[in-house]
Design a protein that fits this description.
Layout: E1 3-8, H1 16-25, E2 31-38, E3 57-61, E4 67-71, H2 75-83, E5 93-99, H3 107-110, H4 112-122, E6 127-133, H5 145-161, E7 170-176, E8 185-188, E9 194-204, E10 210-221, H6 228-233, E11 236-242, H7 249-254
Parallel strand pairs: 1-2, 1-5, 2-4, 5-6, 6-7, 8-11
Antiparallel strand pairs: 3-4, 7-11, 9-10
Helix pairs in contact: 1-5, 2-4
Length: about 260
């Protein structure tokens, strides 16, 4: 039975990471691949649902000349548009990436790459987000080939073991930047602790009105056993199962017997 795969990203339809992922996904047996990705970069956009304006979907070409579609909506919009019929076909799963930087810890709430996969799961389709942990000050183009090959092998295996249980799975795959593909292995991980070093810079425009930039040093994290960040820093591919239910189960359990009154 042919599986129909939707591929998207948050860096824009012309991003090299998207092309590398699409080309590798197409090598799978028995698949049909369609691409609907944003027409510009939406990094750190989070989970967006655009309802305040109309969105456009238009035909385009990837760098290899293959057919794709692009939209002025966010990554999660692109997934919603496709799954609700904008491409006039059904899909079995959503694959998002390849993002040029890791999406770990609390990054998943900001990441357009991950939230595109989440949008797939909301609609009952398994979602896979793929990112690489590129060096912060890397010069020149990034090499996505090894990461794409590894990620697609992982996706194929995870799909073969999925039995249709609920909730629909969301898989966050983070790959160390190793162009030779010499990974230490693959680890199933939990979300680690991401440390942000954001700074707010205030400036004045030519009319003496203030405006702001959010900047600062790149985020780091705590290297802990069993976490996505810890796995990456040890050279392993991190595979983290996510779910949309954000209930604090431990705190909820502690509240048993605790009453609030007005």
């Amino acid at each position: 039975m042919t599986k129909k795969i939707l591929v998207t990203n948050d860096d824009g339809v012309s991003a090299p990471g998207l092309l590398a992922l699409v080309q590798e996904v197409r090598k799978l047996d028995g698949v049909e691949v369609a691409v609907l990705a944003p027409d510009h970069n939406w990094s750190a956009c989070g989970h967006v649902k655009t309802m305040s304006r109309p969105m456009r979907v238009r035909s385009t070409k990837l760098e290899d000349g293959s057919q794709a579609w692009t939209s002025d909506g966010a990554p999660s919009d692109c997934v919603a548009l496709a799954l609700m019929g904008a491409l006039e076909q059904d899909f079995d799963l959503v694959v998002s990436g390849i993002n040029p930087n890791a999406n770990i810890g609390l990054d998943v709430t900001y990441s357009g790459t991950v939230t595109a996969a989440m949008e797939g799961a909301i609609n009952g389709k398994p979602g896979f987000a793929v990112s690489i942990d590129a060096p912060e000050h890397h010069h020149g183009p990034l090499d996505y080939e090894a990461a794409a090959k590894a990620a697609v092998k992982i996706i194929e295996k995870l799909l073969s073991d999925w039995n249709g249980d609920l909730p629909t799975p969301i898989w966050n795959i983070n790959v160390p930047y190793k162009p030779e593909g010499d990974y230490e292995g693959i680890l199933f991980t939990r979300q680690g602790v991401r440390l942000y070093h954001d700074e707010l810079e205030k400036r004045l425009d030519p009319r003496n009105q203030p405006y702001y930039w959010i900047g600062g040093d790149p985020p780091t994290g705590l290297v802990e056993e069993g976490t996505d960040y810890g796995a990456l820093k040890q050279g392993y591919i991190s595979v983290t199962p996510l779910r949309m239910d954000m209930t604090d189960a431990v705190r909820l359990e502690k509240l048993n017997g605790f009453k609030l009154e007005l």
